[in-house]
Amino acid sequence: MGAECKCNCEQDKSLDALFAQNKGNPNGLIVVMAAIQESQGYLPKDYLVKTAEELGVPLSDVYGVATFYAAFSLRPRGRHSVNLCLGTACYVKGAPEVQAMLEKEMGIKAGNTTEDRRFSLDLVRCLGACGIAPVLTVNGEVYPRMSSDKVSEIIAKYE
Description:
Belongs to the complex I 24 kDa subunit family. By secondary structure, the chain is α+β, with helices and mostly antiparallel strands. The protein has helices spanning 13-21, 29-40, 45-55, 59-68, 88-92, 95-106, 151-156; strands at residues 80-85, 119-124, 136-138, 141-143.
């Protein structure tokens, strides 16, 4: 590879230590990637290149892990993770209307992050809470029986 890292990896001393600890060790891949995700909020390309070089892993393998695990994101994520369930019960009980209001309120479509990186909005297939449908979660906090008229109030709590 030999490409010089253009990231600010060196500015994060804990990442430097983790790279040094795992130098040439492909088994440290997920640990290193999780630390980068935690530090940066996502997996920037330059950090993935540095990871491949430091651990001695092909870049294609690093990308393979990054795209396989849902916990990793190749795009910047918001500080607040908003998930709306679109499972059958939630869908039937009004989730599409809640989705429309969330997108309007945040100014983004589902699957994206606001420009200020405050929110990421994702649609999920089931949160396992059909009895309180439709369900919205923000940073893991559950909001049951959602309706479009509750969206503004909930979003305001996280601004």
